[in-house]
UniProtKB/TrEMBL annotation:
Family annotation (Gene3D superfamilies): 3.30.420.40
Organism the protein comes from: marine sediment metagenome
Domain annotation ATPase BadF/BadG/BcrA/BcrD type: ranges: 4-119
Protein name: ATPase BadF/BadG/BcrA/BcrD type domain-containing protein
Length: 186
């Protein structure tokens, strides 16, 4: 995002621009600061924008190899997940680097979150934990907000409450806490 902004272009245009490169410019890829400095220098030297953009894609792949995949065996039949996988320029840079096709699954941007949820779910099941997840239909639930005045003391607090399906879910607004304790609806 930052590099696209620096190049005065939308991040969505980054991949298509990179794919139009005919002679990618080598961009220093050790760290973001060096990459940005090198990119600015290449702009000032008059290098074509498409070549700079694809050079950045290649720099990101080199950075991955030198930091994330260092001392790890990377084998063919590769899957690329996460939001960065939407950038076709980076996909192409990976394919060229590894000389193999890179598979980008549908909804790749969600795979990490789904994996994390599965890990948490399996860990919590082993501890006898029962989920509080209300289900995906929660968005269709009709919530009702109402209020009343407590006449239990001279403060006459206005107590607000929210309920759904005939059950009170939460109350707030009292000074003494008398109404805030609500049996949690299951």
């Amino acid at each position: 995002d930052h590099q696209a902004e620096r190049l005065n272009m939308r991040v969505e245009d980054f991949g298509p621009r990179a794919l139009k490169s005919s002679n990618p410019t080598r961009i220093a890829g050790r760290c973001t600061v060096f990459a940005e400095s090198d990119m600015v220098h290449k702009q000032q030297m008059g290098y074509p924008l498409n070549d700079i953009v694809y050079g950045l894609c290649q720099a990101m792949v080199r950075n991955y190899l030198n930091n994330v995949a260092l001392n790890k065996e990377v084998q063919p039949k590769m899957t690329f997940q996460g939001g960065v996988a939407f950038n076709k320029g980076i996909v192409r840079a990976f394919e060229e680097t590894f000389n193999t096709e890179i598979y980008v699954p549908l909804h790749n941007e969600l795979m990490g979150a789904i994996g994390a949820a599965i890990l948490v779910q399996s860990k919590m099941r082993g501890n006898g934990y029962k989920t509080k997840f209300k289900g995906f239909g929660i968005a269709q639930t009709e919530f009702k907000v109402s209020s009343f005045v407590c006449e239990g003391c001279p403060n006459l607090c206005e107590i607000s409450q929210i309920s759904a399906d005939g059950k009170t879910l939460s109350r707030w607004g009292g000074r003494c806490g008398k109404w805030e304790r609500v049996e949690v609806a299951k």
